[in-house]
Design goal:
Protein name: RNase adaptor protein RapZ
Number of domains: 2
Order of helices and strands: EHEHEHEHHEHEEHHEHE
Radius of gyration: 21 Å
Distance between the termini: 40 Å
Largest sheet: 5 strands, parallel
Strand content: 15-25%
CATH class of the largest domain: Alpha Beta
Organism: Formimonas warabiya
GO molecular function, one term: ATP binding
Keywords: ATP-binding, GTP-binding, Nucleotide-binding
Pfam families: PapZ_C, RapZ-like_N
CATH topology of the largest domain: Rossmann fold
Amino acid sequence: MQESKHREFQIEIITGMSGAGKSQVIHSLEDLGFYCVDNLPPTLIPKFTELISQSRGKMNKVALVMDIRGGEFFPALFEALSQLRSKEINYEIIFLEASNETLVRRFKETRRRHPLAPQGRILEGITQERIMLQELRGMADKIIDTSDLTNRQLKDQVLELFSENKQGQLSITIMSFGYKYGLPLDADLIIDVRFLPNPFYNETLRPFTGEHEQVKNFVLTHPVAKTFLRKYIGLLNFLIPHYAAEGKTHLVIAIGCTGGQHRSVTLANRIAKSLVRRGYHVSISHRDILKAGVKQE
């Protein structure tokens, strides 16, 4: 997020892949009191911000949806953002992401045409859109992967990010995942813990998860796991204040093992507990914990 002398208002730029959930995000922001504009031509952003600054605080929270529906106007977004930076106007880019398979399914379910492939294959439009948005994705302050999120879960994430008592405070999500199901698209930091012994190969532990005591004991009593936790938590304690100092508002730390049910779950919980003790606002997400049909507590 850019530092600014214009602190009387904030601008959230919502962008990302078509079908990734931008409409749901904008509805959630409206519920939080944001003034929302969908598909504003980028060339109008500087003039729009002037109007906001003249509202005397009546429009202090603004969300703008910008995507490839802008057609020939979309490339002008980068120039508009440059103008905002030169005027020291505060803005944040939120990028909505999803896997190709998820996006294709959503377009087929809604029977909508992809804006870049009105007469062609949906996947061709998605591929072209990824290329067009690559630079903007790299500029994003926050990436939200909606591939495995329900509308309710996406709304909860938006509420978590933008509710009044969270503004200006770095929030951290610790996520466990399984490499066999793919990398989390919205992770800022990813660590692979497949170097540890796998409880999956123990028949008595296989049906359980990293939230069960017997699996926790198996993972955490291993000397290498103890050393890893000490060193990795030490690294995070060094990094997190620097992320916060640079204006980052949300940090996703992903812990991955093979299936996302045992080692990564146990270690994610332990790392989250350590960060909470240091006063950080932490939430936990176990993305793949139930995909193998393991037992729940």
